[in-house]
Amino acid sequence: MNSFDAFKDPALCRSLLGRLTEEATTPMRFMEVCGTHTVAIFQSGLRSLLPGTITHLTGPGCPVCVTHESEVAAFLELAARDDVIVATFGDLMRVPGPKGANLKTASAEGARVEVVYSPFDALALAKANPDRTVVFLGIGFETTAPTVAATIRLAREQSLDNFLVMSFHKLVPPALRALLADPEARVDAFILPGHVSAIIGVDPYAFLATEYGVPSVITGFEPLDILQALIHIVRMRRDNAPAVINQYSRVVPEHGNQKALAVMAEVFTPVDALWRGLGVLPQSGLAIAEPYAAFDAFKVLGITLKDHPPLPGCRCGEVLKGKMPPNECPLFAKACTPATPVGPCMVSTEGGCAAYFKYRLEA
Amino acid sequence: MSGRLLLDHGSGGKASQRLVAEMFMRHFDNEILRVMDDAAYLDISGPLAVSTDTFTVDPIFFPGGDIGALSVHGTVNDVSMLGATPLFLTCGFVLEEGLDLGDLERVVVSMGRAAREAGVRIVAGDTKVVPRGAADKIFINTTGIGTVRVSPAPSGRRAAPGDAILLTGSMGDHGLAILSTRQGLSFESPVVSDCASLNFLVGKVLDAVPDVHVLRDPTRGGLATTLNEIAGQSGVGCFIEESRIPVDPAVAGGCAVLGLDPLYLANEGKFICIVPEADAEAALAVMRADALGRGACRIGEVRADYPGKVVMTTPLGGQRLLGMLEGEQLPRIC
After folding, report:
1. Which one of A144, A358, A360 makes the best mutation probe of the B interface by having the most chain B beta carbons within 10 Å?
2. A20, A40, A279, B297: which has the highest count of C-beta atoms within 10 A?
């Protein structure tokens, strides 16, 4: 057994599950913030095994899902330009815009769209296509922002003048604050994202326990990690001792990744940002800072976000806030399916609606 | 041959004739093809299986194979999945102007070799050359004809409650080999396509277990999509256990890094075999005695509940749907 498999060990998992079932005597609603956790909980079959007292909510932690309609419209407008090559991670290809179009349909209509595995690939694309402007769609949380920042810095060092980034980056802690500030949100505990925390560390989550009294655990993505996190949560609630525990210390340094934080702070600046279903959240996004304005697609190409209201009937907001399970949305599995997604939560590989549709035995 | 392919090679004139003689006839040579009439004269009787497929794989050379060998294996396997012995292949080439003739020859040599090894003869063919940009290097269509060996023939419609679901080996090797080559990614352990003709192994299984209910090779869409197709065709539930599905550690690792699921990745040298429970061990023994089925195992069973669905029990003991893939798998953000 390698170290990777050790965290999936079925016998150990069953033993932890037994302990959790024994100790989880009080009803508890927990939300996992990260889309990778959403998928891990469904894919491992853990969701079907959780004790009846525990309700699992999917949260706003999939960067594709929280991409606002106006942002989707902006990058589709960008893709329609003849002089531009759009470079993107694969997740965004099928995210529908306000009129149902997406990057795949744009590509079929002649747009040049390239799926890349890293922003550095987008930089290479710019070098290989000096007569076109390559615009990388910078979507992601604190996990991806440092690499994009490093790419922008490299583009400046190499004096590249045909590489731009359209930054839609978002920050996780402000979203958690917005959730807890909502009087209707009923989240008793958080499973905090492992990848994001590897960059920002533990401190930025302290307010969850100190201001809101919500027990939270930063955790990894294997079944054992998640089970251990849930046991921590159940015990913190039982002892009325809310805290932020770092269960994922094998990856997450207490004070984060200083190098990554430094490059992020150098290239980006926090701004108010639009979140799908959540609206404008103060200081929750990252725009390209003034010294790097020459790489900002919004500024260089003169693109602004235009107002696009959500589609009638779409309840992404409630789903992302954990107020409604995806299958209670009136569009779920009817108008909105992976083949005909109304919102990105149904199309993203890490989306809550997609997970419900894909993995749940009962629709 | 050396140099580059010209539009002249598709003109039907002397350049075309030279290409056909020096390239295709030379490497596919057999007495039926040599006649060179407008159609091949075949003397076969009995129930026949026919399948056609077009191969557009990019890159055309990949670890473990190339588009030529693949175009033989793919169609040989499709014909075999009807419980048939593949006998003849036809092939159509769409070639892009400017293609390196050395590359074309490598592909054709590989195709000829794959056909000889599979015991099938290429009896008819066609070549078109299209202007640069109108095709991507080389597209190959192959059609296969074979004689059906058993009655009733295996079919996706014959899975019945109580049947055992068997698999001949590890999942996802071909799909990840292609994706990683396309993206220039390398892994600690090399990932090699499983591309192979399965007709001889299928023949051995049918000799031992004539009443095979379903044979299906999980190509595009992988195991998950193929099992869903079978569940839908037969109106049954396919219940499988995740821990029993073999996945090579290098493939599992590569998929974890890229955010892909090996159960949705293509295979080109494996098949799913659904047999009555009583025949399961006999079928497995035959598979395991063959190099192409060494990793054969039982992955689950067919049941009457959850008709049309594939239900997977995870190593933790939880159950979840294993749905069909919507579109292609794409790498995720984080």
Report:
1. A358
2. A40
Whole-number Cα distances in Å, B191 to A2, B143, B177, B254:
19, 29, 5, 9
- Residues of B contacting chain A (CB within 8 angstroms): 183, 185, 243, 249, 253, 256, 258-259, 306, 309, 311-321, 323, 326-327, 330-334
Helix (H, G, I), strand (E, B) or coil at A11: helix
Does the beta-carbon distance from B317 to A140 stay under 8 Å?
Answer: no
> Which ipTM value was assigned to this complex?
0.78
What is chain B's Cα-based Rg? Answer: 21
Q: How high does pLDDT run on average in chain A?
A: 93
Query: Tell me, what's the pLDDT at A280?
Result: 94
- 3-class DSSP state of A348: coil
The CA distance from A125 to A130, in Å, is: 9
pLDDT tens readout for residues A186-203: 899 999 999 999 999 999
Q: What is the pLDDT of residues B298-330, one digit of tens each?
A: 999 999 999 999 999 999 999 999 998 777 666
- Four-CA torsion A183, A187, A188, A193, nearest 10 degrees: -130
A286-329, pLDDT tens digit by residue? 999 999 999 999 999 999 999 887 777 888 888 888 888 999 99
Q: Is the CB of B317 less than 8 angstroms away from the CB of A10?
A: yes
Q: What is the reported pLDDT for A342?
A: 86
> Contact A14/B243, CB-based, under 8 Å?
no
| pLDDT exceeds cutoff 50 at A270 | yes
- Chain B positions touching A46 (Cβ under 8 A) are 314, 316, 318
Instruction: Domain B163-322: give its CATH code.
Output: 3.90.650.10
- Domain A5-57+174-246 belongs to what architecture? 3-Layer(aba) Sandwich (3.40)
Each domain of chain A, given as residue ranges in start order, spans 5-57+174-246
| Residue spans in chain B of domains classed CATH 3.30.1330.10 | 4-148
Closest CA to B66 of B98, B28, B111: B111
Write out the two tokens for B51: 């399948």
